[in-house]
Write a structure and sequence with these properties.
The chain is α/β, with parallel strands linked by helices. It is built from 20 helices and eleven strands. The strands form two sheets. The protein has a six-stranded antiparallel sheet with strand order 8-7-6-11-10-9. The chain has a five-stranded parallel sheet with strand order 2-1-3-4-5, sandwiched between helices. It is elongated and about 120 Å long. Keywords: Phosphoprotein.
């Protein structure tokens, strides 16, 4: 049989008669504890230690009066643990209001009316219990909301990192670059008061800036692959196109309505647009200088330059930590805020030790799963990054062979991309959407070659993924030219693999013979 908790009333009154009257009223329903003065009342409260249901408290008592007991309850934050009834013969309104101000549930006037007091106690206890239950529910809901907010923040970071990694993979960089930029920004802004004590940033602002930092290069999605992945130095014209990624990134951000309503938006906009500005005004796209450049963009700029120097890129090998710092400090990477630069240099060893671990060493270009509290989100992110690593390898190969006539068809997105030489031979954009419809309606092959190719496509499997044949291609000037066509098909890693893409290469037959 379950043990029912005994409800206890404490009656604190220096009048033995009053204590007896109250005790007699409630003895059948409650355990009664008595105290003849304020000091004894405090001792009884301590002994009961959370097991008190209600307190009847006389105001005028020896040693410590009723207000003294109320002060003790306030000091030890116990006024919300049980209702307090103030017993008084006073009619002074000032004293009564003072009692209410100190949190008493009700005033019991002497002489005591048993029926009235019994009803007041019952109502007060019920109200008190309901209030505490509601407060408990509210506290639980607040904790749940905070926990969900933390989980949502973690998911948002994973989504931002994963989507930002798409850009890095297109440019032949590791998804770890995004993580390092975000975490470096977080570390630097967490200690920014060392150089900017006037800058009041709370934890939410620091996290928003760090998440925004991960999107610094999203505008590169609009830059052609042949420029992003060019192994050599960009021409002046190509560099002008590359510089536009700062503006393209802002255009993308402005198109996301829900993002514009968040705290993240302004930080992300500033970082996207201004992370290539320089302290002396020689950066781009707007030529801002000095403090015209938002501080968060300045911090991301330093972190981005450092990471670029110590990481392998398609156009260079990684430099050592020491060499990178020497170049940054010497102005070889442009001019930076002198105060911010010294702060960054003082933190550089710590950033190296914490962000470039043994599994992600300086100069490494490997992927690592993004951390998240949700297993499903983590798994999805890891799967996407695995696909992106395959995509990165494809684009690297694609760029290295850009002097060849090559194209890539992505069956998942129904797009087709061309190398520069392929585009020069067959004028048009570097990338087309609705590739299937375009190829069906714009075939340049002789009808008999096209039919033969369709027959060979039926035999393509994961074990037999390529086709080599010679075809006649209709050129823009009206003549047909012979090309050796080599197609290689990519497949998914699922139990029932499906074709995901096709890498094609064309070689003019006459060039082969020469």
């Amino acid at each position: 049989m379950a043990h029912q908790k005994v409800q206890t009333l404490l009656i604190a009154d220096d009048s033995e008669i009053n204590r007896a009257i109250l005790s007699e009223m409630f003895i059948d329903d409650y355990r009664i504890v008595e105290a003849e003065n304020g000091r004894a009342a405090i001792e009884k409260i301590q002994e009961l230690d959370g097991c008190l249901t209600a307190l009847f408290l006389d105001i005028v008592m020896p040693e410590i009066d009723g207000f003294g007991v109320l002060e003790y309850l306030h000091l030890h934050q116990m006024m919300n643990e049980f209702p307090v009834f103030m017993i008084t013969a006073e009619t002074d309104m000032k004293m009564i209001l003072h009692g209410y101000d100190m949190g008493v549930a009700d005033i019991i006037n002497k002489p005591i009316e048993p029926i009235v007091v019994r009803r007041r106690l019952s109502n007060a206890i019920e109200l008190f219990l309901n209030r505490n239950h509601l407060a408990s529910q509210v506290a639980e809901q607040v904790q749940l909301i905070r926990r969900q907010a933390d989980e949502l923040r973690s998911i948002n970071i994973s989504i931002i990192d994963t989507l930002s990694s798409v850009i890095e993979f297109r440019s032949g960089e590791s998804g770890s670059h995004v993580r390092r930029i975000r975490e470096a920004t977080y570390t630097l802004f967490s200690n920014i008061s060392r150089i900017r004590p006037d800058l009041k940033l709370d934890q939410n602002a620091v996290e928003a800036i760090s998440s925004a930092a991960a999107m610094h290069d999203i505008g590169k999605i609009s830059i052609p692959d042949y420029i992003l992945n060019k192994p050599g130095r960009l021409t002046a014209e190509e560099f002008e196109i590359m510089k536009r990624h700062t503006v393209y990134g802002c255009d993308i951000l402005e198109s996301i309505t829900v993002l514009k309503q968040s705290e993240l938006y302004q930080y992300a906009y500033d970082i996207c647009r201004y992370h290539h500005e320089r302290w002396d005004g020689k950066g781009y796209p707007d030529g801002l200088k000095g403090d015209e450049i938002p501080l968060w963009a300045q911090v991301v700029s330093l972190a981005d330059v450092y990471d670029a120097l110590v990481s392998d890129r398609v156009y260079k090998k990684a430099l050592s930590h020491e060499k990178a710092l020497k170049m940054i400090a010497g102005g070889e990477c442009g001019a930076f805020n002198p105060t911010l630069l010294q702060y960054f240099l003082s933190m550089a060893d710590y950033l190296r030790d914490t962000l470039y671990t043994s599994s992600d060493e300086l100069g490494a270009s490997q992927t690592s799963p993004l951390p998240t509290k949700y297993t499903a989100v983590s798994t999805a992110a890891e799967n996407l990054l695995t696909q992106l690593e395959t995509e990165r390898q494809k684009t690297l190969l694609f760029s290295l062979l850009s002097d060849d006539i090559m194209f890539y068809i992505d069956f998942r997105t129904d797009t087709i991309e061309y190398t520069r030489r392929c585009k020069d031979l067959f004028p048009g954009p570097y990338r087309r959407i609705h590739a299937t419809d375009y190829l069906q309606n714009n075939s340049r092959l002789l009808p008999e070659d096209l039919e033969a190719l369709r027959c060979e496509l039926k035999n393509i499997t994961q074990q037999n993924p390529d086709i080599q044949t010679t075809v006649q291609v209709h050129m823009d000037k009206g003549e047909y030219r012979s090309f050796k066509l080599h197609l290689y098909f990519c497949f998914s890693n699922e139990a029932s693999p499906e074709r995901t893409g096709c890498l094609g290469k064309m070689e003019p037959v006459n060039e082969q013979q020469n």
